[in-house]
Amino acid sequence: MNRRQLLLTVAAMLCSVVWAQGPNGSGTYYKGANGKSGKALKTSLAGIIVNPRNVGYDGLYEGYKKTDTRADGYVRDWYSNTTNYRHGVDNKGSYSKEGDMYNREHSVPQSWFEGSGIKSDIVHVLPTDGYVNNRRSNYPFGEVKSVTYQSNNGYSKLGTCKTEGYSGTVFEPNDKIKGDIARIYFYMITRYEDLCGSWGHSVFTSTYPGLTQWTLDMMMRWSKQDPVDAVEIARNNAVYEVQGNRNPYVDYPGLEEYTWGTKMSQAFSYDNFEGQGSGETPVMAVSAPVFTPAEGTYEDKVVVSLATATNGASVYYTLDGTTATERGMLYTAPLTLTATTTVHAVAVKDGTLSTQSVATYTITQSGQGSGETPAASSDIALNNALFGTSYTGAINSADIDDLRGEQDGMTVVYSLADGVNRYCNGEQIRLYPNNTLQFSVTKGTITSLQFTFGASTPSTDLKADVGSMTEGQWTGSASTVTITLGSGKHARLTNVKFSVSVPPTSPEVRGDINGDGKVDALDVQTIINAVAEGSDDAKYDLNGDQSVNALDIQADINYAVEK
Q: Is the pLDDT score of 514 beyond 70?
């Protein structure tokens, strides 16, 4: 694209920004709901957000790459804060505990409704840990009084309900996503207002408002306590890219007040929205602290900064897993974390506290963490040293935990799975019927696995879930390979020699905002949207003046012309 063409394109984009006045780049998407309120507003919105493009149930996993990817590249798990799942890799196999695999969770349980469109609506079908998802079963969301199960760190809970109006078993999501869940439910009873009446289960009703009173009251409260944030806005925009519709309760924080709450007598305006409010004298909102970098897995250490967008507010934090208050530690300088830590933080101004921000940083040691570039080839001894254990033979069947080891970028997991026996000592492991031995890399693909066998083990006893296995040598191209016993009593395995193909890393392209390897009009459009929305994200600050403004648009235009 030459400079004249690019400038014409950018001029058109700038014009669209002037005329498209809806939030988050939504333009005139919601114009048809102008002037409506209450039940009529809900019905009008339903006609706008009808899903025009169903990706299908299998297509959800591909969609999650856009809608639910953490800053460190791993899957955003809605029910657990201790997992590091890889998109399209760790959604296979089975689970026996938290951390085994992720799958697709219907926030409105699938057993409650019929219809393939609802089954694959990515707004409410979320990536979650498979085991925790299974523990939720089809119980409604609620607030737990007596806990019968909780996920790691107490992140999600199951138990009897303490919310007034319901006394059965409920599943309580973490505080940091309760508002997200509430706005998903607002979307569901709007988008499917003609169907949700049949979903029942003491949650949905066949008439307006669409939710039973106890559920509506709780969801309205959750939405206020956990307001819309940048992560939720980004997901909503990605949903629009994937399936072509939006969640209006994310684009317009507090819209539920116009639909069911204190502003039902006020008309909705898509381009002049008043925002969240209760009709009372508003209390100044304090912005919740933001963590930089985002939570995730880091090697050896990570230096974490905390900041709030509210001028004059102080930030307090804890590192022991407890809720942060103004009696906690005052943040004055970046935190250096050298061990896995969950940080809670709150911003305070004039006695008003923000919502709680929580982030978990998993620290791994050099050469032992996720994401290490694997060696092109290497030999691994399959023994207790690899797995960091002291086993000297048969493993007690009551010990069901996986044995996990890493060497030269290759992760090896020896699992009991559906088997009965396992064996590990200083010289070998034994693969019994229904055991699994999994090899995986996070970068590149495995192309060869050559096994060395102990005494009395035929080289024909192994099989693999992908690729080809011949005489104890696997060949193929996969990031994960699972080996099982194909025949015989057991296989004695002493070593494996692997080969990995790792593509060269592409250099970063300055000005390539959307990460497609080139600088073009799409990147300029992204900068324009960021400026229009008042973003302060440093990735848009191309000229280094510590702000995001029109100069950054010009800088990206220059990069595009130069490229």
A: no
User: Three-state SS string across 154-214, please?
Assistant: HCCEEEEECCCCCCCEEEECCHHHHHHHHHHHHHHHHHCCCCHHHCCCCCECCCCCCECHH
Residue 561 to residue 563: CA distance in whole angstroms: 5
Residue 174 CA from chain centroid, whole number: 13
CATH of 290-364, picked from 3.40.50.800, 3.30.70.3040, 2.60.40.10, 1.20.120.450, is 2.60.40.10
pLDDT value at residue 529: 72
- The mean pLDDT of 54-76, rounded to a whole number, is 91
Asked if residues 461 and 394 have their Cβ atoms less than 8 Å apart, the reply is no
As a whole number of angstroms, the distance between CA 271 and CA 252 comes to 10
Place of tokens 């809806």: 22
Distances (CA, A) of 473 to 439, 449, 460: 14, 6, 9
Fold of 377-501: Jelly Rolls (2.60.120)
- Would you say 158 and 144 are in contact if contact means Cβ atoms under 8 Å apart? yes
How do strand 329-330 and strand 341-349 relate by DSSP bridges?
unpaired
Residue 512, helix vs strand vs coil: coil
Query: Element (H or E) spanning 268, and its range?
Result: none
